[in-house]
Amino acid sequence: MNPPFLYSSWLEYWEKKTGNHAVYCACCGCTKRAEHGAHVRKYESFDDTVYIVPLCAECNNPNNV
Asked: Which of 10, 18, 36, 53 sees the fewest Cβ atoms within 10 Å?
């Protein structure tokens, strides 16, 4: 899925919308550098909202649950 118009990446979109600069991966326990704006959903929740969070390439693996 492409980022919204005027944004070069989902990570840039996250940075502009939050006013923060993504440095580290947002995955618990990971200290690697954030490289992607990942689409995530809350685990075991009735909330089907898709959120964008900064993740490293390893944590952004679609098989990582």
From this structure: 18
